[in-house]
Amino acid sequence: MTDVTVDRDVVFHRPPERESPLELDVYRPDDGGTDRPAVVVYHGGGWIEGEKGQLEALERGLAERGYVCFDANYRLSGEATFPTPVEDGAAAVRFAKEHADEYGIDPDRVATTGHSAGGHLAALVAAADGDFDPEDATVSSKVAASAPISGAYDMRDRTPEAANDLERQFLGGGPDEVPERYERVSPAAHVDSATPPTLVLHGDDDDLLPADGAREYAQALAEAGRPVELGILPGGGHGIVVEPEDWQDRGIETVADFLDRRL
Question: If one looks up domain 4-153+196-262 in CATH, what number appears?
Answer without folding.
Answer: 3.40.50.1820
